Amino acid sequence: MSRRRQIYEGKAKILYEGPEPGTIIQYFKDDATAFNAQKKGTISGKGVLNNRISEHIFTLLGQIGIPTHFIRRLNMREQLVRQVEIIPVEVVIRNVAAGSISKRLGIEEGTALPRTILEYYYKDDALGDPMITDEHIACFGWASQEEMHDVADMAIRINDFMCGLFAGVGIRLIDFKLEFGRLWDGDYSRVILADEISPDGCRLWDSTTNEKLDKDRFRQDLGGEVEAYQEVARRFGLLPEGSVSTVLDLDEHRKARGKKDS
Ligand code: TMP
Ligand code: ASP
Question: Could you say which of 3.30.200.20, 3.40.190.10, 1.20.120.80, 1.10.10.60 is the CATH number of the domain covering 6-84+225-257?
Fold first, then answer.
């Protein structure tokens, strides 16, 4: 497979036309952005790790009955997914105060929230993804009330499952972002989980040390970004002990030979 049609390039991924109608290939880049792309960089090997971590989580979510776009991982940087119409609403789920909620409401980072908070942001880079409510979503027709009911339902189930999943590997799931899409079947559509779930869009703190194992290392210039992502993958058993550099070196080797698809 060589020159496929590129459908879209985002900040961390490229989407290509898939091999069959209704499918898409998601290519995970090493590019990282923060603060609405005001800060840009690369985290060498991030794409490989996010591809694996997201595959792992989407597979497990599928097994508990959450409908997702994930079909299968194709290679180190690509996965085959179902084509959906992305709902332009980013769903943020918070269990512990951190990031923008701490800043906006003056709540000390690390404060456990007495209940899970669901927030919605309008997915529009030019506007800086402003926070919105159900009222805006309904008013501007970004999603129907039935769709948002399903979105909220799934977000809570996903959060419950993921809190346990991460707790099992000694990680606290502080908050994370989800995106959903419409899967069309003739005139009907249903909402399924789309995009990715990786340390790019989650806050993950080590349960005992509170060490940050996510993109805040990049946002806050803490260093050790790729090591943190590797640690998450390693705890899930996705990297055989001691083989981390081999996996990433192999990917570099492939890239150098210009063979991304094998
Ligand atoms: P926030 O505290 O900056 O609002 O972020 C909440 C969570 O959502 C955090 O885990 C990072 C994730 N997130 C994204 O994935 N993309 C974004 O554009 C933003 C703003 C947050
Ligand atoms: N996703 C980035 C962040 O979390 C924002 C951006 O991509 O611009 O800060």
Answer: 3.30.200.20
Q: Averaged over 2-14, what is the pLDDT?
A: 92
Ligand 1 site, CB within 6 A: 92, 99-101, 129, 175-177, 201-203
DSSP string, 29-56: -SEEEETTTTEEEE-TTHHHHHHHHHHH
83 lines ligand 2 (CB under 6 A): no
Q: Return the closest-CA partner of residue 137 out of 197, 150, 105.
A: 150
- The CB of 37 under 6 Å from ligand 2? The reply is yes
Centre of ligand 1 to C-alpha 98, Å, is 10
CA 127 from centroid of its chain's CA atoms: 21
| pLDDT per position as a tens digit, 84-111 | 999 999 999 999 999 999 999 999 999 9
Q: Are strands 31-34 and 39-42 parallel, antiparallel or unpaired?
A: antiparallel
Backbone angles phi, psi at 189, to 5 degrees: -140, 155
C-alpha–C-alpha distance, residues 88 and 193, integer Å: 13
pTM for the model stands at 0.94
Helix (H, G, I), strand (E, B) or coil at 28: strand
| Best probe residue, ligand 2, of 29, 31, 36 (max atoms within 8 Å of C-beta) | 36
Question: Of all atoms in ligand 2, which is nearest to the CA of residue 35?
Answer: 9
* CATH superfamily label, 85-206: ATP-grasp fold, B domain (3.30.470.20)
pLDDT at residue 64, as a whole number = 98
C-alpha count within 13 angstroms, C-beta hemisphere, residue 76 = 21
The domain spans of the chain are 6-84+225-257, 85-206
